[in-house]
Amino acid sequence: MPKTMTRMAVDAKPEEMNPYAIALEQLASVATILGLDDDIHAILQKPKRELTVNFPVNMESGGTRMFTGYRVQHNTSRGPAKGGLRFHPETDLDEVRALAMWMTWKCAIVNIPFGGAKGGVVCDPKTLTKAELEDLTRRYTTEISLVIGPDSDIPAPDVGTNGQIMAWIMDTYSMHAGHTVPAVVTGKPVSIGGSEGRLDATGLGVALTTEEAFQKLGRQMNGAAVAVQGFGNVGIAAARLFYKRGAKIVAVSDVKGGIANAHGLDIPALTAHVAATGSVVGFAEAEPLSNEEILETACDVLVPAALQGQITEANAPKLRAKMVVEGANGPTTPGGDAILRERGILLLPDVLANAGGVTVSYFEWVQDIQSFFWSESQVNARLARIMRRAFAEVWNASETHKVDLRTAAYIVGVARVAEATLTRGIYP
Ligand code: NAD
Fold first, then answer.
1. Atom 17 of ligand 1 has which residue's CA nearest to it?
2. Distance between CA atoms of residues 98 and 47, nearest Å
3. 256 labelled catalytic
């Protein structure tokens, strides 16, 4: 194996906006701090397995349409691969690779026995009928059934997917197996082996890690002003749980636009408005706001909970948040990160802050395997214990190494994965 450190070629997008290039850059900086062996670094740079599938779906309007999907397993040294499925028109292989690598570090940071994976289908689920979406999901599941399974790789929801889609995946996999296999996928409805607490888990993890940070800084959640970009699985739960803890949600946005109210939005009323209209836009008692403006809202906590590449070199100087808590995966580019650091804006990184989702997915998998289910309070108590322990380990690493929390989180996660890889040895 070559002894030199290698940088992999990636697609010709602007470098800092390509998520895979960003993920490699983040790994390289931690490899230097950890003094990681070049061979181990080279192993960790590459996804272990990448599957691309092209498949037809019968459209209700007549004829068939071809779709492309991916499933990437980055590393399985610590256990089966685990990671969400994204249905989005702009998803591509580099994005899925980056998200798979981030999953490896995230599972190691919260110390659950999984490796990292991610999947995606290039499509806009909002433009498909329910029957087309079901057919697409079932055919994609069949295509990737070569690599997924309860012992090998367990998908979950991500952008553009939900519990219903997870249910179709479970059913399709089970039909092929000839018996029900609930542990093949997490984020399922509770009626078919999902876990209590899974819907809110990522948002709860965001709220819990923010609470821990506030405690370290001697500040109060009660009355804190919070802005949330993205009002989907993660953003809705985060906004509701901050609101329940006495915070003021001063701005939220989704793909159609944003709204603001400096006195605080009524989150239960807003959630009902979104359920009825499909967007936060048009909510009464709020000012309209653009998606650029929401990131520049004056607030105590900014939660990017939409997509990657939102806080960049261009807008980081304009942020007026005291703390950024990454609900989304990869919302801050390395250039944006550096500016926030210089400006003394504390950032709780994605691999820690949004790890509540995969942690409760782990609980769901455990419950499915043992066919013995826990109450919501048991799930939430176990989640809180894991999130607080992970926060403390990352905070301590940041003090020991005198680094920011993202670097500290990577130090914890990458060191655990490197140790597992070394301990297992290279086969054959
Ligand atoms: P989702 O599809 O349920 O919601 C995404 C939200 O972002 C929607 O409200 C959408 O309108 C909005 N959005 C999309 N583009 C936007 C833009 N340009 N500006 C503003 N808003 C925009 O997805 P989700 O599951 O909530 O995931 C959001 C992020 O959180 C992703 O980065 C995902 O990888 C990450 N994440 C999700 C989970 C989970 O459990 N679902 C766990 C960890 C991390």
1. 255
2. 9
3. no
